């Protein structure tokens, strides 16, 4: 039985978050035989079959700026390594040490442990920040292209050649082009991004977002 946890993250003064819950599917992806990694091709096949557009594989560095996507829902699959991911609050300083380990961030949110095999389904508007990645590595785009699509004549062959080192994730999107918004924006517009037809992992089953993301996505205008 797959463990599914959901987290309701309400609007803050700086980020919209979403009326739809963040979903964390724990250890839902199988590991590649004789390794602790997940097979990028298998994950690509799964997401693509369910109409989610795979855009990248990134190897993450020690931390990043908290951000959200205003035009698309995001699915992140952990392929290798471990990390912490903070959801639901904005960073309030460009100082990466202070906004990761100090107090330069909004109050609230949730910090989740991420490891190979996990999948996060992130509604448009939900702020997120990956940090404390293990093994240590430098940030890098591992898939061919510029991070907005797998730019290869044969994506399957290209992904089969990706060498997974450090903490790596595959990102897929539904609803529109992904952008990088640190704070602000038109909250109501973000909340109106349409609900996907299929869950990236469970497809047409009610087990995932189809049964847990109800309604149109619009919420009241009140801010926390």
UniProtKB/TrEMBL annotation:
SUPFAM superfamilies (alphabetical): RmlC-like cupins
Organism of origin: Penicillium subrubescens
Lineage start: Eukaryota, Fungi, Dikarya, Ascomycota, Pezizomycotina
Name used for this protein in its record: Cupin type-1 domain-containing protein
Superkingdom classification of source: Eukaryota
Family matches, as InterPro entries: Cupin_1, RmlC-like_jellyroll, RmlC_Cupin_sf, YjiB-like
Transmembrane parts of this sequence: none
Classification via Gene3D superfamilies: Jelly Rolls (2.60.120.10)
Secretion signal span: none
UniProt domain Cupin type-1: residue ranges: 67-143
């Amino acid at each position: 039985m797959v463990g599914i946890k959901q987290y309701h993250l309400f609007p803050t003064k700086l980020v919209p978050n979403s009326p739809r819950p963040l979903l964390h599917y724990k250890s839902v992806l199988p590991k590649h035989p004789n390794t602790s990694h997940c097979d990028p091709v298998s994950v690509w096949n799964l997401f693509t079959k369910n109409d989610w557009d795979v855009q990248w594989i990134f190897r993450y560095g020690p931390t990043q700026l908290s951000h959200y996507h205003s035009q698309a829902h995001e699915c992140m699959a952990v392929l290798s390594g471990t990390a912490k991911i903070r959801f639901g609050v904005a960073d309030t300083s460009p100082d990466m040490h202070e906004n990761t380990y100090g107090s330069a961030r909004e109050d609230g949110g949730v910090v989740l442990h991420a490891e190979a095999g996990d999948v996060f389904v992130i509604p448009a508007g939900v702020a997120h920040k990956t940090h404390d990645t293990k093994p240590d590595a430098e940030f890098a785009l591992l898939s061919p292209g510029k991070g907005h699509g797998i730019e290869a004549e044969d994506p399957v062959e290209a992904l089969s050649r990706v060498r997974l080192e450090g903490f790596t994730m595959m990102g897929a999107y539904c609803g529109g082009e992904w952008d990088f918004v640190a704070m602000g924006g038109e909250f109501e517009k973000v909340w109106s991004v349409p609900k996907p037809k299929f869950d990236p992992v469970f497809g047409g089953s009610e087990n995932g977002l189809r049964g847990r993301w109800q309604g149109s996505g619009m919420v009241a205008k009140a801010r926390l």
